[in-house]
Write a structure and sequence with these properties.
- The protein contains 6 helices and 9 strands, in the order ββαβββββαβαβααα.
- It is of the alpha+beta class.
């Protein structure tokens, strides 16, 4: 006897009908860990004297995405957020959650007037390249839809700005960011903070 279709609510809160038996049995049987998690937000640091308007966001894109935001009041907060998919998630769920996270960040800390992301030309593996490309596509389409300016910044440019060396190791970047008064939990958060400092101190590359 065919199984009766079951109403399921997806991550956006909209109900849809699912008749995939394996998925439904797995959903009933397995409780996954939350797929979106955020590290404790670093204590805010106030930056005075920059010329960028309103709130600006810097991102180190990846499964574990580092982020740093400078509010209109000059307060900088930062952290990392994981978009690792659950065991039974479809391939697009990480990007849907990323887009929803951007919307929530814009609502709570925005409106965002500019977004900068670390522009990576070479990846350690194919999967990492695919994830980066998907996140970048989600970010740029999200920004286009809302008229928010965005730009990618080469890794060497960011490293050179905070350490003086374009090929500085991750440990040097973390140390340089801590010397500036921040307390990043990991190198993803440190990279986002370094990018934010570059954007603020060069007016988005104009200086």
């Amino acid at each position: 006897m065919p199984r009766k279709p079951t109403a399921v609510t997806d991550v956006t809160g909209h109900p849809h009908i699912s008749v995939t038996r394996a998925r439904m049995r797995a959903r009933d049987r397995v409780t996954e860990e939350p797929v979106t998690s955020v590290t404790p937000v670093s204590a805010g640091v106030v930056l005075d004297g920059d010329d960028l308007p309103d709130a600006v966001l810097a991102l180190d894109l990846g499964t574990s995405t580092g982020w740093a935001i400078r509010g209109a009041d000059g307060l900088v907060t930062s952290g990392t957020v994981s978009f690792r998919p659950g065991r039974y998630d479809g391939g697009g769920m990480r990007y849907l959650r990323f887009g929803n996270w951007l919307t929530e960040l814009d609502r709570l800390s925005g409106p965002l007037s500019g977004i900068w992301f670390e522009e990576v030309r070479r990846h350690l593996g194919t999967d990492a390249a695919h994830v980066y490309g998907g996140l970048m596509a989600t970010l740029t389409s999200w920004a286009e839809l809302r008229g928010v300016p965005y730009a990618g910044v080469p890794v060497g440019t960011i490293k050179r700005h905070v350490t003086g060396l374009g090929n500085a190791p991750k440990a040097s970047v973390v140390a340089a960011i801590r010397d500036r008064g921040f307390a990043p939990e990991n190198d993803d958060e440190a990279d986002a903070l370094a990018l934010l400092l570059w954007a603020i101190e060069t007016k988005g590359g104009l200086r």
